[in-house]
């Protein structure tokens, strides 16, 4: 009888998604798909990245559009470009490109190299400082402006593993402005710099205090992948223990256990007091399916996956 009670409780907990929720999700999905369709997906390389010897302003605007599209998925306010930070980020990217910084080694603070004579002391000092307070991305060959942002949001190439630090900074509710820079080295790597740490942002009053990845209506392309971790970010609450996390597919009424749950709250990425990351385990992730995440004694929420490239 005990087994029957547990089974019945599980079925009750996995009731079909209400039709009103399905209708609301379809409307939101259509809006997100339309917005994504307008983003510039043109690939650029070492020959087309610059305009008249300088990083194209359109490239920066394209990157900003991608960043704000992704932030909108989490109901986060848009951020703006800051001219001074653009210049600093560009100098930093050019310095890393000039020395062909090792793309497989953490380059925050440029710890592996001494200053080459061809780089001024001022620029070297600036690059060391800015690289320390920025998201860095190293991409070989051609890529769109948005590819760089997508890599940082999914954080699937994070050299430090599962902490999702790049994502946390880009999805920080406190983030107000960014500085963007990019340059190619002779090794055909594009060195991308996104300055994300601004002193005054820490004190900013915010409305969104919980950022859940994935959440709400979410692109399946950002949720599934070998090295993509899901995350729970809390601004005001500090969690020291590891919660037990379960994912429910409300469409098929099946339950799955999260894997590789870890706590990175000591890092303070994005000014979050709690950073929990995990993988969805054996959960099949399909566009159109509704899901529920239960992190015991922490948070419970629902989301639906959608295809942001329905015509591909």
Automatic annotation (TrEMBL):
Q: Which Gene3D superfamilies match?
A: CAP
Secretion signal: which residues? Answer: 1-23
Q: Which residues form the SCP domain?
A: 64-192
UniProtKB keywords: Coiled coil, Signal
Q: Does the keyword RNA-binding apply?
A: no
| Coiled coil spans | 22-49
Name listed for the protein in its UniProt record = SCP domain-containing protein
Q: Which organism is it from?
A: Lactobacillus corticis
Q: What is the lineage of its organism?
A: Bacteria, Bacillati, Bacillota, Bacilli, Lactobacillales
């Amino acid at each position: 009888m005990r087994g029957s009670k547990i089974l019945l409780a599980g079925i009750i907990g996995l009731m079909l998604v209400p039709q009103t929720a399905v209708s609301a999700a379809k409307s939101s999905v259509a809006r997100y798909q339309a917005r994504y369709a307008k983003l510039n997906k043109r690939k650029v390389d070492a020959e087309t990245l610059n305009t008249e010897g300088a990083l194209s302003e359109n490239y920066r605007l394209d990157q900003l559009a991608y960043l704000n599209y992704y932030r909108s998925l989490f109901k986060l306010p848009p951020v703006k470009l800051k001219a001074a930070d653009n210049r600093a980020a560009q100098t930093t990217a050019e310095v890393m490109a000039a020395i062909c910084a090792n793309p497989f080694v953490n380059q925050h603070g440029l710890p592996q190299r001494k200053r080459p004579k061809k780089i001024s002391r001022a620029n070297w000092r600036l690059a060391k400082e800015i690289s320390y307070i920025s998201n860095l991305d190293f991409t070989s060959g051609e890529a769109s402006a948005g590819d760089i942002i997508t890599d940082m949001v999914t954080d699937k190439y994070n050299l430090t593993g599962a902490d999702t630090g790049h994502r946390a900074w880009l999805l920080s509710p406190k983030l107000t402005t960014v500085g963007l820079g990019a340059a190619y080295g002779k090794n055909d790597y594009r060195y991308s710099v996104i300055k994300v740490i601004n002193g005054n942002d820490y004190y900013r009053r915010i409305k969104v205090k919980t950022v859940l990845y994935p959440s709400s209506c979410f692109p399946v392309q950002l949720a599934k992948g070998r090295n993509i971790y899901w995350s729970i970010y809390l601004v005001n609450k500090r969690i020291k223990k590891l919660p037990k996390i379960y994912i429910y597919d409300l469409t098929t009424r099946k339950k799955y256990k999260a894997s590789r749950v870890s706590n990175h709250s000591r890092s303070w990425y994005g000014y979050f007091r709690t950073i929990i990351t995990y993988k969805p385990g054996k959960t099949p992730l399909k566009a159109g399916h509704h899901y529920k995440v239960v992190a015991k004694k922490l948070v419970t929420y629902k989301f639906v996956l959608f295809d942001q490239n329905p015509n591909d």
